Amino acid sequence: MNNRKRQVIVASQKLFVEKGFQNTSIQDILDESHISKGTFYNYFASKNECLIAIIAKGREEADVRKHEMLIGQDPKDKNILAKQIAVLMQINRDQNLIPIFESIFHSGDPELKEVVMRFHLNELNWLAKRIVDIYGEESKPHCYDAAILTFGMIQHMLHIWKITREDSLDPVLIVKYVIQQLDAILPAQIEKGEHFLGCDLAKYLHENFKHKYVTKEYLVEQLNGFSEGLIEDDLQAGKEYTACLIKSLREETIPYYIIEAIVLPFNTSFKGTKHAAEAQEIANLIWLFIKQNNNLNILNSN
Amino acid sequence: MNNRKRQVIVASQKLFVEKGFQNTSIQDILDESHISKGTFYNYFASKNECLIAIIAKGREEADVRKHEMLIGQDPKDKNILAKQIAVLMQINRDQNLIPIFESIFHSGDPELKEVVMRFHLNELNWLAKRIVDIYGEESKPHCYDAAILTFGMIQHMLHIWKITREDSLDPVLIVKYVIQQLDAILPAQIEKGEHFLGCDLAKYLHENFKHKYVTKEYLVEQLNGFSEGLIEDDLQAGKEYTACLIKSLREETIPYYIIEAIVLPFNTSFKGTKHAAEAQEIANLIWLFIKQNNNLNILNSN
DNA sequence: ATTCATTTTATACTCATGGTACAACTTTTT
DNA sequence: AAAAAGTTGTACCATGAGTATAAAATGAAT
C-alpha cells in the first residue's frame, strides 16, 4: 500500500542520483522498482510529482536532523552550526538535490519551480536566524545578506570540489572554512552598517511565509470558505476530500497521516477547474501546517 | 552561407532565453529562424551542438570584452575588476547562460558537461589571476579559494535577487558588494596563512589547461602522432580530415576558418572508434588554439 | 544561357518518451 | 465468498529529436 509508494520513491531517487532527472525515463523507474506503469501513475500524477515527493522527503529529513542536532546544545556554538549545515549539504549531495534543484529551477515547469523556491528560501530563512543566534542581535540587519553569501560560498566550493576531485571530502570541512570567512565578513559589515538585499528578502519572506505559522483555526476557516465556494457541478471527489479535511482538523487528536494522504488527491482533484489555484494554495498551507506540527512534536518530546 | 548559421544561432538563443533550453523544440527554432529542418541539421549535429555554439559565442564575447576593458587601465583598480565581472554576469544573464549552465551540467550529456566545465574553470582561472593583480603577490596562495568564494557569492546573490524581485538591478552593484566582502576575507586569509581547495584546483587547472598555451608546433606534433596511429581499417574521412588539419597548420598564413570547419567533423568521424578519446582531446586542443589565437589578434591590434 | 554542384526545402519517416485508458488479474478487507 | 481496492499488461496517443531523400532553388563556371 503506502509501502509501494516508498518503494517507488527509493528506486526513482536512486536513478535520479545516478543518471539525473532528465535522463531517467519512467520506464527506468518501472524496471528498477518492479512495478507497472499503472501503479506509478496511481501514486504520482506525473514524473514531476514524483520528483517533488523526493525533494520533499529530503527537506523533511534535513529539517528533522537540523532540529535534532540543536537539542540540548548551545545555539551559539559555531561547530554545531557547521555540523547542521554539513548535514544539510550531505543530504543534498547524497540525494543529488542541488543539481536537480538548479536544473529544474530554470527548465522545469512553474509548479516544480515554486516548490524548489519555497524550500530554498525556507533554508535561507533558517540560516539567517541561526546567524543571529550566533553573532548576536547586532548582526540582525545583515543576517539575510550573510546567509545568502554563506550558502553561495558553500555551494560553489562544493561544486568546484566535486568537479576537480573525485574523492569524497567531508563537507563539514568546507562549511567550517566558509564560516571562518563569515567571521571576517560579518564584523566588517556590522561596522559599516550597510545592508544589501537583506531588507528586500526579509520583506519577501515575510509576505510569502506569513502562513508559515498557520494555526489549525486558520486552516479550518480557509477550508470552510473554500467549501462554500464549491457548486453542484464540481466533482464529488473534491467535495469529499474537502469535507474530510475539515472533519479531520476538528478532531481532538489530529490524524496527521490521514490529512497527509488526502492533501495530494485533494489538490489534484481540482486540477483544471476554476478552483485549481485556490486548492493549490490550501494544499500548500496544509503541507506547511503538517511540517510545522511535526517539528513541534520533536521539540516538545525532548 | 555562414550567415545562415548565425541566423539560426541568434534565433535559437532568443528562444532559449525566453523559454529555456528544454522547453524549446527544434520546431520552434525552425519557425523562429525561418529555415527548414534539413538546414538546421546541416549546421548542427544536434540541439546540444547548437547550444554549445551559443555558449561558446557568449564566452568568446565575454573574453573579448574583458580584455577590452582592461586595455590602458590600471590592473589594480577594483572598479575595473567589478565592471569586468559585471559584464561577464551581464552576458550570462542576458543570454540566460547560468541557468542553462547549471541545468545542463547535471542533466545533460557528458559532452555538454565537458564544455561548460571548461568554460567555468577558465573563468575561475582568470579571476584568480586578477585577484593577484589587485591584492598582490602575497594573496597568491589564496587566490583560487578567493575566486571560488567570490563567484559563489555573486552567483547566489544574483540568483536570490532574481527570485525575490522582478526589477532589473544593476549587476555591478552586487559585484561591488561582493568585492567589499573580499576586502574583509583576503587579509584575514593572508594573516592566517591557510589555504583550502586552492592548491588542488591550481594543480587541476594546470593539468587540464596546460595546453592552453598550445603552440602550432605542438599541435602538428600531436596530429602527426595521431595520424601514425591510424590503420587501414579506419574511415577514409577521418584520415582526410587529419591530413587536412596538418596541412592547414603548416601553411604560412593559417586558414583558421577552414580548421574551425573541420574540427567538428574530424571529431565526430572518430566517434565510436578506439581513437575517439584521442580525437576528442586533439579537437579540444585545436579549439583552444583557435581561441587563443583570436585573442592574440585582438590584443595585437590594440 | 546552360550546366553542374551546392544549399535549401518539404515531406515523410523512425524511435524514444510521457502520459492515458482499460480490461484482466491479484490481494486485502469485510 | 464477495466486494473493494490495488496491480498488471497491453495497447494507445501526442510530442519531439533526429534521419532520409527527392525536388526545388541558388549560384558559380564555362
Task: Specify which chain pair forms the largest interface.
Answer: A-B, 49 and 50 residues
The secondary-structure class of chain A comes to mainly alpha
* pLDDT averaged over residues of chain A: 81
* CATH class group of the largest domain in chain A: Mainly Alpha
End-to-end separation of chain A in angstroms reads 32 Å
Morphology call of chain A? globular
Provide the CATH topology of the largest domain in chain A. Answer: Tetracycline Repressor, domain 2
Order of helices and strands of chain A: HHHHHHHHHHHHHH
Number of separate structural domains of chain A: 3
Give the low-confidence spans of chain A: 295-302
Oligomeric form: homodimer
Count of DSSP H/I helices of chain A:
14
Summarize the structure.
With 302 residues, chain A is mainly α.
Report on this model:
Two copies of one chain form a homodimer. With 302 residues, the first copy, chain A, is mainly α. Chain A folds into three domains: 1-44, Arc Repressor Mutant, subunit A (Orthogonal Bundle), CATH 1.10.10.60; 46-211, Tetracycline Repressor, domain 2 (Orthogonal Bundle); 214-300. Helix content of chain A is 78%, strand content 0%. Chain A has helices at 2-19, 26-33, 37-43, 47-70, 78-94, 97-107, 110-135, 143-164, 171-192, 198-209, 216-229, 236-250, 256-269, 276-300. In chain A, helix 7 (110-135) crosses helix 8. The first copy, chain A, starts with a helix and ends with a helix. The interface between A and B is large, with 49 and 50 residues. Chain B binds a DNA duplex (30 and 30 nucleotides) through helix 3. Chains A, B: Residues 2-62 form the HTH tetR-type domain. Chains A, B: This is HTH tetR-type domain-containing protein. Chains A, B: It comes from Viridibacillus arvi. Chains A, B: Residues 25-44 bind DNA.
